[in-house]
Amino acid sequence: MPAPGQTPPPAPADEFSLVGNVLCIDFVNTEVVAHGTPVDRLGDVDALLRWARMADVVDEAALRRLPAGWRSSREAGRLLQDAKALRAVLRGALDALAAGRPLTAEVVPAINDALAAGASTLRLERRGAGYVTVRDALDPSPAALLAPIAESAAWLLEHGDRALIRRCENPRCIRFFYDTTKNRRRRWCSMDACGSRAKAAAYYQRVKAGQPRPSGRPGTSTP
Fold this sequence. Notes:
Elements: H1 23-28, E1 31-34, E2 37-40, H2 45-54, H3 60-64, H4 74-99, H5 107-116, E3 120-127, E4 130-137, H6 147-159, E5 165-167, E6 176-178, H7 191-209
Antiparallel strand pairs: 1-2, 3-4, 5-6
């Protein structure tokens, strides 16, 4: 763990993948399947803080304000436990929404509990030649870290298009996304991961079956 008062090192490039297009979906996607094995990317509170920093939930200044020894405290352990509990509820909600099923009764209370931990007020600041609205937490405790995730989930339920909440079509993948593509036909969590593997598998099956390339012209391929 980092020394007291220090921020955790930046997340490795392959630790987290923000492909969901909505914060609460990216949070749920901290659970993945790697080589056929479920992997929890939030293995400890430092991993949670790295994700929060990468997702712009917190800034460096907020992390530096954490009390000395906080990362090994019961409060830190409780925050990690609460984060995983919220993630489990949100995963169930996304699974239901993607499949067209109704939400369970636990979803709204779980979101409201996380929202309550992030009570805040807005303040206007002058920045150079312009202005910016800043949100100040009324109780700046680390538990407030879950509030932006809950706000995102509340927005998704109130304003989001449920038809655009999808699970990656790779049957081995457990990630979700909110489809913001122009034609609304996105299929994969990431073309660099599941999409490219699916294309490679389809190509292998065509070659195995002796079928021509999709373009019908030797030596060429479709994009």
